[in-house]
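Page 47, continued from p. 46.
Same chain as before, 281 aa.
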Amino acid sequence: MLLLRIRGLLPSLNPALKKIAEYILDHPQEVKLMRIKELAGECGVAEATISRFVKTVGLGNFQELKINLAALPLDGDRATKMVYQEVNESDPVSTILDKIFSINSKALEDTRRILDTHEIERAVAAIDQARHVDIYAAGGSYVAAEHVRLRFYRIGKRCHTYSDPNQQSVSASLLAAGDLAVGITNSGRTISTVNALKQARSSGAATMCITSFDNTPITEHSDIVLFTSTQDSAFFQESMVSRLAQMLVVDALYAALAVKHFGTSVERIERSADALRRMFL
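Result:
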């Protein structure tokens, strides 16, 4: 959980703190044996900066950081290094396969670990009670937004998705108390999605986001925050793993809401399935 927390904070860290974070993510087993002076030297920062980083990740002192790192399984270090390695031109196909599958499987496992059950319950309640659910996303995250709409309307909860910034703005301005706005952005910094959620909250609507990074603009305007675990990659932009993680969170919300109204949900799913079967030759 510590490494996930550190990675989730990466976009919000200043350059000096980011250096420390990246070094720890790359060398967790080595750092647990270091003194604070040694880590400061490796990162090229002052010891006071190391102490500030420790406080930023929610720990009391450097020794507590080392204790948390010591609790990591040894094979977890290998998995972490594999996840953070980029695909490069010298990699044979077998290594590329190992890296891609490691990145994706680790991200989905980590997403399950960091999802807060209480936040999921709050999200399900908010969706259930909402008069209107408007979903904002752009780029690759719009795939997950459409997944929300397609999932929930099968059980009777009508949602609308918006990717155009102008339409997002209009939609958000027309929401009110009793409505729910959902923003989906892996980075947490997509301008149009952030602005739409900010406007929706100003209009009186409840707000929720699905993102991978804490302390980002989207979380500032969200009443409910659901985190996924993915990593930025210079080689893969708009990577599939972020969409998969987002869609799995959506599936969890959908299943939890369907179970809450089990009889009605099953009846609606069966009716919609019958309608779809008539579309096949």
